[in-house]
Amino acid sequence: MRSVLIIDDDPLIRKTLSGHLSKQGFDVQLAEEGEEGVRKFREFGPDVVILDVRLPDLDGLEVLRQIRDLNKKTYVLMMTAYDDMKTTVEAIKLGAFEYLVKPLNYIDLDLTVAKAFQVRALEQKVSYLVEERQKEYTIDNIIGRSPQMREVFKLIGSVANTRTNVLIQGESGTGKELVAKAIHYNSPYHDEPFIVINCSAIADTLLESELFGHARGAFTDAVAETKGKFEIAGKGTLFLDEIGDISPNLQSKLLRVIETRDFMKVGGEKILKTEARIIAATNHDLKSLIEKGQFREDLFYRLKVVEIFLPSLRERKEDIPELVAYLMEKINRELRRSVRKIPPEVMAVLQDLPWRGNVRELENALTRAVILAKGDVILKENLPLESAEKKLFPGDLVPLREVERSYIQHVLDSALGSKTRASQILQISRPTLDKKIKEYRLRLNPPVS
């Protein structure tokens, strides 16, 4: 039951307020002095406190201070017969939810109490969602018992409590962003922002503005000053995905930020500081790019203070059964299905497939299989990918254009029509994929059998 504590030295006000709120279903406790009110607050822990500013023993603001020290999540409604601006300001500064003037208007009182409970419910919901969100990125949600994955877990644990820059390397779909989030959400700064920038998805000129922000008038469309991701990240984490795709010019500017911890907005003159930790990721061989002169060696060593290599799914096939169990639980929960049985022969097929798109491709395949399953069992015909022993190329010799068209359609079907995932698997940009879809007249929805 929702509870309210009324602290007022006027017996008539205590009686009328108690009767009014009790009729509305509240559990009401009464106190006529400040010390008694604080004691009853400790005993009963009410959701809302209605507190008079002037009490015979303690000042109402002192009672408010003590109650807030005991529980900052309690909503305190201050009331007084004196319309005193200074007291009102002080009460709000100390954390009072609302300030009411006597004689009380019961309509205003009811609306204020209702608002307090609505805000409380909303805060509880947001708190729950944040906790659930953080649970998604605990180390427990990175699945694997293979020696390679055990090494990854050790590195996550070692680096989480530091502010060290981290470089995560691995093929597309191996879970680089998941590892970055596990590092962030297991760090002392898990309440700070986790900001993601996909360096390959943004044009170089726009990427600089995204990272550093821009001043008003910096370029034609800069009608207002904006914050960059370094500024927004605060003391949190800036995750730079596909770091190998940034231009030499931006590499130089990023190197300077890492070395000096300061930057300027595009078109700006003021120097800003950053405390964000940088986690970078790539599916490129950066050492090869360095040899070709496409990536700065000094930036590479600044980023890879700690280096984490994520193995491909092909290299840790012993983890597939456990991964499948975890993904099936997740997919069934999201789709509100109950397809949980996988026969041994189907699991054998899953372990035999090459999974060039790694865990992301496996999740897509299982999602499609759950959608197409007629009962609670996944069958071989529900799987969208060809088995490993089948030939990559068709038996008939066909033009290159036809091979490209068929394969892009195959990837789109495997990705359940997601152009973002398809472009990541194909390692081409979204505009290029859109052009191919239009050119070949490809469908976005996988066929239902």
Write a structural description.
This protein is an alpha/beta fold and 449 residues long. It starts with a strand and ends in a 9-residue tail after the last helix. Helix content is 47%, strand content 13%. It has 18 helices and 14 strands. A five-stranded parallel β-sheet has the order 2-1-3-4-5, with helices on both faces. The protein has a five-stranded parallel β-sheet with strand order 7-10-13-6-14. It folds into four domains: 3-132, 3-Layer(aba) Sandwich (Rossmann fold), CATH 3.40.50; 140-309, Rossmann fold (3-Layer(aba) Sandwich), CATH 3.40.50; 312-389, Helicase, Ruva Protein, domain 3, CATH 1.10.8.60; 391-449, Homeodomain-like (Arc Repressor Mutant, subunit A, Orthogonal Bundle), CATH 1.10.10.60. It has helices at 11-23, 34-44, 60-70, 85-93, 106-135, 147-160, 176-185, 204-212, 229-233, 248-260, 286-291, 297-303, 320-335, 344-352, 358-372, 400-414, 419-426, 430-440, and strands spanning 3-7, 27-31, 48-52, 75-80, 98-101, 166-169, 194-198, 213-214, 226-227, 237-241, 262-264, 271-273, 277-282, 306-309. The mean pLDDT is 87.
What is the level 1 CATH name of the largest domain? Alpha Beta
Note the gap between the termini.
Answer: 52 Å
DSSP strand tally: 14
Biggest β-sheet, characterized? 5 strands, parallel
Shape: extended
Low-confidence stretches at least 5 residues in length (pLDDT < 50)?
none
CATH architecture type of the largest domain: 3-Layer(aba) Sandwich
Q: What is the total domain count?
A: 4
Tally the helices.
18
Rg: 30 Å
